[in-house]
Amino acid sequence: MDLTPRTENEEEQQPSEARANPRNFLRHIPSLGIVLGILAAALLAGWFGGRNSVKPGNSSQVVNQPQQTPSDAPSAVKEDYPEDKSLKWLKGVLPRGSSLYLCLVGQGVGPEEVFKLQKALKPLFDLRKCPAGSRYQLALDGQGRVAEFIYQPNEIDLYSVHLSPQGSLEAAKEKNQTRVVKIEGEINSSLYEAVLELGHSAEVAMQLADIFAWQIDFLTEPRQGDRFKLVVEEEYRGDAKRPKRILAAQYDGKLTGEHTAIFFCDPSGHCDYYTLEGKSLRKAFLRAPLKYRRISSHFSYRRLHPILRIWRPHLGIDYAAPIGTPVSAIGDGVVIKKGWNRDGGRFLKLRHPNGYTSTYCHLSRFAKGIKPGVKVRQGEVIAYVGSTGLSTGPHLYFAISRNGKKINFLKMKLPSASSVHPKYLSQFSRIKEERLAMLNSPADSDYVVLQPGEEISQQ
């Protein structure tokens, strides 16, 4: 989504999306000569897969940060090796186009030891899919066994493996530190640029745009001078940080007016963004279940079927899209059917609140874990576009019904998502007041972050 505002006489701008560059990576990587020298092991390798200155008035401050002690300070890939002379330490950075298997074997680690390492880490992540730039350190004991392994796929996450007294490898992911920061700024060129100028990632801007997607068109409505305030929970390790979620947001624009969002999880575990009155900021359904190229066939009670060459109703929408395009649940619901039929090919059917059902046909495959009885959230990927069944090309057939009657989705007035349940309004009110206090807090304020079910505690 383009988040660039326009001044009153200015045409739309199209800023390119920026990507944060990784910093401070280790410099030591296996040489090409070593990698080529293990050509015999390469057959196994395939298995491992291989700005502008801040405008005055803008601010970003920590409103809650846990104190670090030497015992709980975050670890990192070490620059200096331990004193244990019985261990042989190796380190490196995974280069583009290579694999961790090639790097480790090239540095003298036995293939079987690499496989043991992969098996130990399997519950946490797939070692065969390490991204380029990943940093690692590994220690071998006198018998050539992996005694310790430290892996950092990015600047935040850290995994460790060590050899237990019983001789097995035990893996763990270090718990990231979290804190809450307040971000306040004014749009000069774009929301995207304003957030970056404050030292935060583009993900913060995208989260804000998603929260107010139904209230603000961030493609056309932002204007120079619009202001925003955010309370963001973020993970960090050293100087690196990553946003987890926005706890509260306020946007005040010349065209949009003022909008406020409060993040609230009720005791049943349902989480959403709400207005100050407790109404959901979302609509019950997305505008479309996928990113599509065009609508190839509309809702009609009489359409000539392109294959059967007979006139019959087409009570849904055909969205043309490439095979493999992700298909998302149109709204919160439960999978009630998953299967195959002659016309629709591979299909899914979901049940939604208030008597609505949605159907998705001609799918190439289902998303992992999707089966009858599974609950899905709005926007969750449930399947992928295909051309199965009676189909002339890759597309998604999408239909929606209420109480068994098909509805023209393109002409449907989308209902709002559920408000805060009346029995949870008192909890919501307390959370709302805390979040508003955070939004309006001065620099020396300190607030705790509440988890679902916790009582409010202001310090």
Describe the structure concisely for a colleague.
The chain has 459 residues and is mainly β. It folds into 3 domains: 169 residues, Nuclear Transport Factor 2, Chain: A; 94 residues, Nuclear Transport Factor 2, Chain: A (Roll), CATH 3.10.450; 118 residues, Glucose Permease (Domain IIA) (Distorted Sandwich). It has 7 helices and 23 strands.
Mean of pLDDT: 81
CATH class of the largest domain: Alpha Beta
User: Count of helices?
Assistant: 7
Instruction: Quickly give the structural class.
Output: mainly beta
Q: How many DSSP-defined strands?
A: 23
How many individual domains? 3
Q: If classified by CATH, what would the architecture of the largest domain be? A: Roll
Shape: globular
β-strand amount = 25-35%
Key phrases:
single chain, 459 residues, mainly beta, Nuclear Transport Factor 2, Chain: A, Glucose Permease (Domain IIA), 3 domains, ten-stranded antiparallel β-sheet, globular, disordered C terminus
3D architecture notes:
α5 crosses α6. The two termini are 39 Å apart. The chain folds into three domains: 1-23 and 179-282 and 418-459, Nuclear Transport Factor 2, Chain: A, CATH 3.10.450.350; 25-50 and 87-154, Roll (Nuclear Transport Factor 2, Chain: A), CATH 3.10.450; 294-411, Distorted Sandwich (Glucose Permease (Domain IIA)). It has helices at 32-36, 42-45, 100-106, 111-121, 191-197, 202-211, 425-439, and strands at 59-64, 88-93, 135-140, 146-152, 159-163, 169-173, 177-186, 227-237, 240-253, 257-265, 271-274, 294-297, 300-304, 311-314, 317-320, 326-328, 333-341, 345-351, 356-366, 375-376, 381-385, 395-402, 405-407. The radius of gyration is 26 Å and the shape is globular. Helices cover 13% and strands 32% of the residues. The model is unreliable at 1-56, 65-75 and 450-459 (pLDDT under 50). By secondary structure, the protein is mainly beta. The strands form four sheets. Strands 12, 15, 16, 17, 18, 19, 20, 21, 22 and 23 form a ten-stranded antiparallel β-sheet that branches. A six-stranded antiparallel β-sheet has the order 1-7-8-9-10-11, sandwiched between helices. Strands 2-3-4-5-6 form a five-stranded antiparallel β-sheet, with helices on one face. The protein has seven helices and 23 strands.
